[in-house]
Every structure is written in structure tokens, then in C-alpha cells.
Amino acid sequence: MSLNINSDYKNDSNSWIVKISGELDVSCADDLKKELDSNIDNKLSNVKIDMSNLQYIDSTGIGVIIGAMKKLRKEKKDISILNAKDNVKKIFKITGLDQIIRMEG
Prior knowledge:
Elements: E1 3-10, E2 15-24, H1 29-43, E3 46-57, H2 59-74, E4 79-82, H3 86-95, E5 102-104
Parallel strand pairs: 2-3, 3-4, 4-5
Antiparallel strand pairs: 1-2
Helix pairs in contact: 1-2
Family: Belongs to the anti-sigma-factor antagonist family.
GO molecular function, one term: anti-sigma factor antagonist activity
Pfam families: STAS
């Protein structure tokens, strides 16, 4: 399975919503990294990643999210995860990322 990425900037909330679906693994993590990097550099807004349709994430995908978080926090912005499935939430909990990245839904 591949990764699909859709994004939308919300002026009213100063947030950039990124919807990802499929599987976020080593084969496609670079696609998400490029999308996040280019938009973080251009908008420097808060980022919300909607994972409601994400089936799987591996350590490479986690690394991309950590990299985006670091970049955003340098600019006093933040990242949050929306609507992650239980198996994805479990990865965030095991790694302790649920303590440093806001999980909503």
C-alpha cells in the first residue's frame, strides 16, 4: 500500500491540516518529509496531521514527524496528531512521543 497526502491551510486557525492515508514507512516517508518541509518553510504555521486513515507507521515515519516537530518548535509553532487509529497510537505511546506531541481524537 502507498501513502496519500492531502493538505489544506486554515487561515482562521493558523493551522495547516495534513491528511495522510495508507502506510507511512521507509518506502514513502521521504514524500511526507518533502511535503512537510516545503510547507513549514513557506507558512510557518501550526501543523495538524490527520491520521484517521493511516493504517501503519514505522520508525522512518516517526522520524519524519519528529523532524517536523523540531523544525516547528524552533519557530515557536507546534504539531499535533489527529484521530490516529489504536495501532498507530500504540506506537506513539511505546516511543513516549505521546508525551511530547499532542494527540487529539
